[in-house]
Specification:
Number of domains: 2
CATH class of the largest domain: Mainly Alpha
Mean pLDDT: 78
Shape: flat
Radius of gyration: 29 Å
Order of helices and strands: HHHHHH
Structural class: mainly alpha
Number of strands: 0
Oligomer: single chain
């Protein structure tokens, strides 16, 4: 057996479930397809790709990052005032303690729904109705009759410089 789990000299073939016959024209070796080996190799390859690539979160404007950090600390204070343990809140919200810790730190990579579930556990879900209630800029734009453009204007194509060789 080699590193892929197939017999030495045998090559895992296409996912057809059939063995390939030896052809005289191209002199390819006989391929034996094993569905379990193929799936395990694909899962291994995908796992390696995910580890290497990882998740990247675009950076936030510093002001928004501070607001999110403050929001997380407010949630932590609410939890401590109620004398709930992190384990209890995490369990009731259906998340891990590590995710709750990220919420309380104001991590922007955590989904908004997770923040909402933590607020629900702390009986703060009514505060969600206060988000984006006062759209001051939107009202000013509406009063001025200015409508935001749906698309950015097209770039004017600039002529490419000609370089002689």
């Amino acid at each position: 057996m080699d590193a892929r789990g197939s017999a030495a000299g045998a090559v895992v073939g296409p996912p057809t479930g059939r063995a390939c016959s030896l052809k005289q024209e191209d002199q390819t070796p006989t391929r034996i397809f094993n569905n379990e080996q193929y799936r395990s190799q694909i899962n291994l390859d995908l796992g390696i790709i995910l580890l290497v690539m990882g998740k990247t979160t675009p950076p936030l404007v510093p002001r928004v990052a501070r607001l999110l950090t403050g929001f997380g600390s407010h949630l932590k204070l609410a939890r401590l005032r109620r004398k709930y343990s992190a384990e209890t809140v995490a369990q009731r919200a259906g998340i891990t303690r590590r995710t709750l810790s990220k919420v309380e730190q104001g991590d922007p990579a955590v989904a908004f729904g997770v923040y909402a579930r933590v607020m629900q556990v702390l009986r703060l879900e009514d505060d969600l109705a206060l988000l984006a209630v006062d759209d001051e800029l939107g009202r000013k734009l509406q009063d001025a009759g200015i409508t935001p453009k749906l698309r950015a204007p097209k770039r004017a194509s600039s002529p490419r410089p000609f370089v002689e060789l």
